[in-house]
Amino acid sequence: MSILTLFIIIPILTIIGILFSKSHMQVKWISVVGMSLQLLSAIALIFMYLAERRAGNMAEVLFVQDNVWYETLNIHFYLGVDGVSVAMIGLTALVVFAGIFASWDIVDLPREFFTSLILLAAGVFGFFISLDLFTMFLFYELAVIPMYLLIGIWGSGPRHYSAMKLTLMLMGGSAFILLGIIGIYFNSAPGGGQLTFDLIKISKQTIPLNVQLFLFPFLFAGFGVLGAMFPFHTWSPDGHASAPTAVSMLHAGVLMKLGGYGCYRVAVFLLPEAAHQLGWIFLILATIGVIYGALGAIWQKDLKYINAYSSVSHCALVLFAILMFNQTAMNGAIMQMISHGIMTALFFALIGMIYGRTHTRFINEMGGLMKVMPFLGVAYVIAGLASLGLPGFSGFVAEMTIFVGSFQNADTFHRVATIIAASSIVVTAVYVLRVVGTLLLGKIKNEHFENLPDAKWYDKVSVITLIFGITFIGMAPLWLSDMITGGLGPIMHKLLAAAPILN
Amino acid sequence: MLIMRHELLLIAITVILLIVEIFLSNTQKHKIILPAILLMAAVTVIGFIPGTPGILFGGMYQSTALSMMFKNILNIGVLIVFIQSVDWLKQPQNKEKISEFFILMLSTLIGMNYMISAGDFLMFYIGLELATIPVAALAAYERMKEKSAEAGVKLIFTSALSSGILLYGLSMIYGTTGTMYFADVAPLITGVPLQVLAFIFFFAGMAFKISLVPFHLWTADVYEGAPVNVASYLSVISKGAAVFVFTIILYTVFYKIAVMWSELLYGITILTITVGNLFAMRQQNLKRFLAFSSIAQAGFILLGMLGQSQLGMTTVIYFALVYIFSNLGAFGVVGIISNRTGKENINDYDGLYRTNPNLSLVMMLALFSLAGIPPLAGFFGKFFLFTAAAKQGYYILVLIALINTIISLYYYLLVIKAMLLNNSDQPIAKFTSDGYTRVGLLMCVAGMVIIGFASSIYEMVFNLSFGLY
Questions:
Q1: Which of A70, A271, B173, B177 has the greatest number of beta carbons closer than 10 A?
Q2: DSSP H helices in B282-356
Q3: Is residue B379 part of a domain?
Q4: Complex ipTM value
Q5: Nearest residue on chain B to A179, judged by CA atoms?
Q6: Which residues of chain B lie closer than 8 angstroms to A73, CB-CB?
Q7: What's the gap in Å between the CA of B416 and the closest CA on chain A?
């Protein structure tokens, strides 16, 4: 049994524990224990992975576990990781751990809340460790569906509407993905032989070009919905604004990365020729998304909406970088996913904590919070600076890599796209600094706010974990980028074979 | 003798129940419930003992490993229906008619078994009629209720009409081929116009039974009027058996004109799924809601039939199995709530989770399974159906069906929204359901959870389906 199985077993055991727990406190502590174990296994996995690579194990995927599930259709329960998925697992474990502490003051139906939250996490972990398209899709849907309950029951504002919109749009995306997966399956052995869902085996084949051209838009758009690709991003602001804190964190931090990861791992990896031919369409959409999200964030007054639009912008940057088809940009895309995942989780955690104290999310109604709650204020400034890409934080490393990579494409189309996307950095600075200015500095606008308490211990655990994440990556990015680069080999190889002229 | 084991056992317990019934006075009728369920459970278990396939009556009756397995599936379904009905049967207005319920159910089941094992059209028709007529009596079971009586009449009229059409088609087949045996008819199907007409009539007759659009008009009214447990029986067992036989006949008798019927099925599939879904969205009454949802589900099964291969046959049976557990779970919850409170509308379910968490949970799982959400069995069923259809290159059809799954998810979520998200001033009061209901629902949940993971079930069906097409 490989260590990867733990990432599925631990959530299941935690859920069983929660179901048998008797009190509110027990539920929370069982969740904490379970997710701490998960975080520890993630850290252990990172070290084990690095050790294996250092020992010279250059296999494409490590820690493989392969069990036949449905023999007739050749469906396997096939787990394995490369550098990219290890990084994503680390991100997920970190955000989920922080999310548990961020939802410490859930009062209504705590058992159901933590069950759904951990079920969601289980889906995400399963998605990242699966190498079989069938199980990958299974975990993908498993991650999406608890969102409905999480937003619908514990959300705020127009939660019923947002929950329904989000679920239907994401499941609509998954319908496209399903079509793509089935299409790939029936073309997985063009030279004869057994059909397979095995991602690695399929990647060794060349799927006929006309099939690729048919399937690529479905797969890329399908995953793009979850990656908040313009114009399929509309679920994201509503969903994030209505969701409870931990769910926003997990959703923006981790779940949206499923989209980017899926585009990278399934759409581009398996259909490289079509990606080269049709990539420009999605590149235009991604570029629009980058600038549109950033501009959208400027106009919003609600903290969560600001952050949701900023997520749209940052996630579009991920797709933008993937579609540049070169190693540096691709590396940047993964870095951006991780950096944005931690950063946006931090943002949403802080927003949730501020909202829990002030009971408003409108920036105009707040001011001078730095004096009242210095801990949260400083944390917010850190998150903001990371978001606008200040050196020393993870955001800088990621965006720098992306733009260096995308500028390597020398033709006019890519250059123009890069320049437009890069200009979003300025816009980001505007909205981040605007929020920091009105929210934290200045004088206190509402006298009720003067006696608000600062962060509680559980808030601090959550915030410090995440800040540690962004600064650590920002200060020492090389080990992460090396790990990712190691995982990028096969996909770059395929992309180069598909279009030798580029690069 | 052993070849007809399933039917003979069912006949035996029907006779036993009839005899026992004679000795029970009107006030003692409830004493038959437990023996009836135990006998049915015994029959179900005995059915699983591997039997020998064979042919009887010169080929009129043929028993294959596949048909035996499907009979077992039906037995399990009927057993669950029996268990779920107890709470309703014990109500005062039904007390005098308890034994009739079991006897009528068993006779329809016998009919279905003969229909499944038919080796010629005559046997098939007799089985079909035996399976249909008692159901009309069951639909009118609560005869003092206007709607129930209406449902019975509607069902008998529509099924008489559809049987007539079907029979007309069968007579034309006889006219063109001179035989009624499946094995002899098959090579003589050449696609001459009269045979095409015969096939269309046959198809229309079956479409009535499976309630495919545009032959679905009776469904919602009958389901609404009939007692919940009878409606669940209609939607699951009757439909499952008809689908099975239909697939077998399409694959073994009409395979020569597959080009024609696959085009027909293609259109009907799109119509059935879409119309079923669009109507389901607007329903308030849960029985009507489930009626339209079951129409849409039947449309999904057609995708598997279009698979036209061993894979297609397997997915049809597998989906039918999954569907039995999921739909019975949903109907079970609707049934118990209707018995205890008389409430059948979606609005009435507002805030149900706060008062009856376990029932809401079962309902949620059942609806998620119907919508095809992992890790429940419905997900696997739907995935395999799409795979089977895509194997034949029907990508556009699969896409339409996939978009329809999103529509269906929407209305299933409406019920879940009522139960979990909405709050109500007057929610359905907390009640404890009796042991029978719990066992019945637990069996459904177990089925929904286990069938997907246990790939051996799928493999078994696949191996048994070998050589059919």
A1: A271
A2: 286-305, 310-341, 352-355
A3: yes
A4: 0.91
A5: B399
A6: 384, 387
A7: 9
